Every structure is written in C-alpha cells, then in structure tokens.
C-alpha cells in the first residue's frame, strides 16, 4: 500500500497553486471551473489522504465545494494556523509556491478534522446574513457622520440612511423566507427562537454559521465559537482564563442575544446575578452567560426540544 498524500492548495483570485505531499514541484491550475475539474482529475489519480485549503475570503469556495461534491476529502482551515505553523518550522518566506508546500506540510502534521462544507443553500443564506451585517455597519457609520455633517450634507446622509434601512428590511424578509421554506431550518429556527433573548437575527446567524449545533459536546461547541476559557498558566504563575479565536459572527450574535436574555430569560438573568455576587466583573459575567446560552441551545437542538423554564 502506497503512502497517503496530503495536498496543500494556495488560493488566489485567478489561480490554485497545489503541492502534492513532499514533492518539490508545484502545479498551478486556473481558479475557474475548468481548472478545478483538472485538479479533481489529478487528485483522483493519487492515493489522497486530505486536501487542505486556507480560508481566503471566498476565493476557495468553488474549488473546495467542487472537491467535496466529487467525494474527495477536503477541509478549509484558518490561515492564522498555517502561518503560525510556518513560523514554528522556521519558514519565514512567503510565496505562492512556499505557501502551498507549508499547507501540505501542515495537513500532514496536523491532520485537521474534516467537517461538512456548506451546501449551496446554506452559502446563500450565509451571504444574506453577512450582507445584513454589512448594512447595519453602514447605517451606524452614516448616523455617526450625520452628527458632524454640515447642512448641505445632512439631507443626503438622511436619504442614504432611509435607503439602507429599506434594504435592511428587505434582506430581513429574504432571510426569513429562506428559513421558512426549508423544513430543517424552520425546525431549528422554532427551537432557537423559543429561547427568551434569541430573535430572528441571532437565530439566522446560528443556523448558517454554527451548523454543528446539536452535534457536538458542550466543550467542543464552546471552543468552535471562541467562548471556551483557555488556561494561561506556567510554572507557579496562574493567569486569568481567556477566550481566543473561534467564530466572531457567532459571538457577536450571542452578545446581543445575551443582553436581551438578561431582561427576558430568568435562567440567564439568575446566572449573571450569581456571577456578579461572586465578584466577577461585568465582562467576565457576560462572556460566561454567552457560553451558557450557547450550551443551552446546543442541548435543545440535540434533543429537539423547545425552551422549558425550570
């Protein structure tokens, strides 16, 4: 039996630079459907263990999803992990070819877990949720400009804000329609929105950005979201536990949901009050409440049960 090959792919807008295991040669494919088809044909001829892509803001989605649809093992990883791995192994130079080799080496050494990639419908929902977040950011920016704008510009800014708000309402309706038209998403949405504090916006974020909900343990789901406290100890030094990494969009959604839950969710409110009474600062208590809220919805989706107040 031959040695399994770990493949690293460095992605750019127009090309895919591919390293096959320990081979020095780098093969470049076009980052389009024709190039991806050629890559799939090449991968099907080797004893493939895993193909690893860095997340590059969307340029990797065509090739990664095509490989997954062809039944080939593929995973998309955080580029920070690969860059830290390169530094740890003494590789400081950064070119497309060297990056591909580093990714292949990282794949062989780290063997990252394979998780299902988003299907087309989930990708479309994610795009809508992302666009909604962008519109909110633009509205906030325009409102801040309005405070300092002169008389000539105020009318233009107000008109733009009204236009953005109409687009925001339309995006919200589109997101709701997509969720209601999918039996699986509709069932998840019903469970999530039964929790006091979680509304349509947070529910949509959790559906598209945390598909592992209900499938993983409490500890693993908190790690994925970046809400698990990490040790900072060395020798006699005992540091404060900190959160790190994870999915920022999920944390942002849970942050807003937690503030609503402090008013309307007796379980989260009581938990927060106990933490404050124990001397925890506001930020630590809020983070702990975010984690508790996530663990609760993870258990509810696992058991397929609606919210029940004890």
Structure description:
This protein has 310 residues and is of the alpha/beta class. It has helices spanning 33-43, 61-69, 79-88, 96-110, 120-148, 151-180, 183-193, 200-209, 218-225, 248-264, 266-277, 282-303; strands at 5-11, 15-20, 26-30, 48-54, 74-77, 233-234, 237-238. The strands form two sheets. Strands 3-2-1-4-5 form a five-stranded mixed β-sheet. It has a two-stranded antiparallel sheet with strand order 6-7. Strand 4 (48-54), helix 2 and strand 5 form a beta-alpha-beta unit. Helix 1 (33-43) packs across helix 2 (61-69).
| Main sheet makeup | 5 strands, mixed
Strand order in the sheet with the most strands:
3-2-1-4-5
The rounded distance between the terminal residues' Cα atoms is: 57 Å
- How would you spell out the order of helices and strands? EEEHEHEHHHHHHHEEHHH
- Report low-confidence residues grouped into runs of 5 or more: none
Which class best fits the helix and strand makeup? Answer: alpha/beta
Radius of gyration: 23 Å
How many individual helices?
12
Portion of residues in beta strands equals: 5-15%
Mean pLDDT: 88
State the total count of DSSP E strands.
7
Rough outline = globular
Helix percent reads 55-70%
């Amino acid at each position: 039996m031959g040695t399994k090959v770990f493949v690293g792919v460095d992605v750019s807008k127009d090309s895919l630079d591919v390293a096959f295991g320990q081979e020095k040669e780098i093969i470049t494919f076009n980052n389009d459907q024709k190039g991806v088809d050629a890559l799939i044909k090449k991968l099907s001829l080797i004893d493939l263990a895993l193909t690893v892509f860095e997340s590059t803001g969307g340029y990797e989605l065509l090739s990664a999803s095509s490989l997954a649809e062809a039944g080939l093992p593929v995973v998309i990883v955080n580029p920070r992990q690969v860059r830290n791995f390169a530094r740890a192994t003494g590789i400081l130079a950064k070119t497309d070819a060297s990056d591909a080799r580093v990714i292949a080496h990282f794949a062989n050494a780290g063997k990252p877990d394979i998780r299902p990639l988003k299907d087309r419908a989930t990708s479309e929902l994610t795009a809508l949720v992302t666009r909604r977040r962008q519109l909110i950011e633009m509205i906030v920016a325009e409102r801040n400009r309005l405070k300092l704008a002169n008389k000539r510009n105020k009318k233009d800014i107000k008109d733009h804000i009204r236009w953005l708000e109409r687009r925001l309402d339309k995006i919200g309706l589109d997101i709701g329609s997509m969720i209601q038209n999918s039996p699986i998403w509709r069932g998840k949405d019903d469970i999530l929105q039964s929790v006091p504090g979680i509304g349509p916006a947070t529910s949509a974020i959790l559906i598209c950005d945390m598909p592992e909900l209900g499938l993983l343990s409490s500890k693993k789901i908190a790690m994925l979201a970046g809400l698990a406290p990490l040790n900072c100890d060395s020798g006699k030094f005992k540091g404060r536990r900190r959160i790190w990494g994870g999915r920022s969009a999920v944390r942002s959604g849970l942050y807003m949901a937690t503030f609503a839950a402090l008013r309307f969710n007796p379980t989260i409110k009581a938990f927060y009050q106990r933490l404050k009474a124990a001397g925890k600062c506001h930020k630590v208590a809020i983070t702990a409440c975010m984690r508790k809220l996530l663990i609760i919805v993870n258990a509810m989706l696992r058991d397929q049960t609606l919210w029940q107040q004890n």
